[in-house]
Amino acid sequence: MIYLEQVLKETSRLYPPAPIIGRENKESIQIGTHIIPPKSHIAILIYMLHKAPDVFPNPEKFDPDRFSAENMATRDRYSFIPFSLGPRICIGHLNAMMQMKIILCHIMRNFKVVSMDPLDKMNVMMTATLRCLNPIRLKITLRE
């Protein structure tokens, strides 16, 4: 189950359920040479944050080991926020993770699932949620 959780986290890194979130800062914030005044509307691009090469080397590669205990211990907790973080975290994030584990275990135990298209052919569109522009074609067969 530990590796399954790493797989789900890596999937959420590459394809976060909410690719962009909005916030309003209470105090002024300095980022580099820029000062953001209080009560500014800020968009946090989670989709891009999760692809930062200084945090996630080779960011387009699917690598569940990024979420091993050793690798997580050295990474800033704000570098991976598929459900946001802090007091505004998605209230259903634990339920979502549990449901994904249960459903994926059931599918993988009973079926063989093979992608019919290469991953690089998957085009996504950012809206309130991340969605695929083209159909995701899978070959699903019953396990014997």
UniProtKB/TrEMBL annotation:
Transmembrane segments: none annotated. The keyword Membrane applies. InterPro entries: Cyt_P450, Cyt_P450_CS, Cyt_P450_E_grp-IV, Cyt_P450_sf, Cytochrome_P450_Monoox. One of its GO terms (molecular function) is monooxygenase activity. Keywords: Endoplasmic reticulum, Heme, Iron, Membrane, Metal-binding, Monooxygenase, Oxidoreductase. Heme binds at residue 90. GO terms for cellular component: endoplasmic reticulum membrane. Gene3D superfamilies: Cytochrome P450. Its cofactor is heme. It comes from the Eukaryota. It is found in: Endoplasmic reticulum membrane. The keyword Oxidoreductase applies. Belongs to the cytochrome P450 family. May be involved in the metabolism of insect hormones and in the breakdown of synthetic insecticides. This is Cytochrome P450 4g1. It comes from Stegodyphus mimosarum.
